[in-house]
């Protein structure tokens, strides 16, 4: 992505609009097989505005995926509320699309059938759905692979299929859980830049879960640090005022990036150490 490329993107109006996503005093508990209560998240307050790109980092097992599952509506909170556009979320979040670490694509369907599926399920006719799918397949760099099956593609290409599958339905909310972590370093940087390019042209709100603090800073408008569990809370909420458009490989050398990394890592490192100590005690 050239840094001279011009674009206009939606700038979140933080104070005026109702947040797209709001977690209000959210606690999440699971019952262990022993019958004991395991509190994963405790009293989480989080707002995500329209068009914001927010990453969540934290030690392993602290509750990052659980947070995403609450926003997707896969799990209800034990206490507190998840609101979407100011309305309590009930059941699956219809405004959200998810890209997980594992494959999204159906192995028995071709690329074009996988990518067009979301539109077909929404009742669009095959011709229109295919036409839009072809555009998205091209946008994610898979032109010529329309009739391939997932097993005929590389891991990076399958990830592109997953992105196109989600983006074709133009979700207001894009939820990404370790979406690029299985990719090699070069493919990952390409995919991160592609994601930014596409997101910059939309007003989607993105919640991105990652173990990689550099990835979180390079992509985001805000980075949220969760404490070590059990009962994880928000330890830090860091605005990332780095210029856009960004090239994720180049932005890492920006002195401001390095300052932010040092600052956030100071917070995160303490939680990683606590989590490590907890794991060694059990
Ligand atoms: N459906 C469930 N039932 C019981 N416990 C669960 C369930 N889902 C998650 N947990 C527990 O909640 C805790 C947090 O898990 P979660 O996957 O949200 O953490 P994470 O921060 O995403 O982890 P990682 O960084 O390792 O991916 C873990 O102890 C996990 O075992």
TrEMBL record:
Keywords for this protein: ATP-binding, Nucleotide-binding, Transport
Domain ABC transporter: 21-253
Source taxon at top rank: Bacteria
Residues annotated as transmembrane: none
Annotated InterPro entries: AAA+_ATPase (IPR003593), ABC_transporter-like_ATP-bd (IPR003439), ABC_transporter-like_CS (IPR017871), ABC_transporter_ATP-bind (IPR050166), P-loop_NTPase (IPR027417)
GO molecular function, one term: ATP hydrolysis activity
PANTHER family to which the protein is assigned, alphabetical: ALIPHATIC SULFONATES IMPORT ATP-BINDING PROTEIN SSUB, TAURINE IMPORT ATP-BINDING PROTEIN-RELATED
Name used for this protein in its record: ABC transporter ATP-binding protein
Organism, scientific name: Collibacillus ludicampi
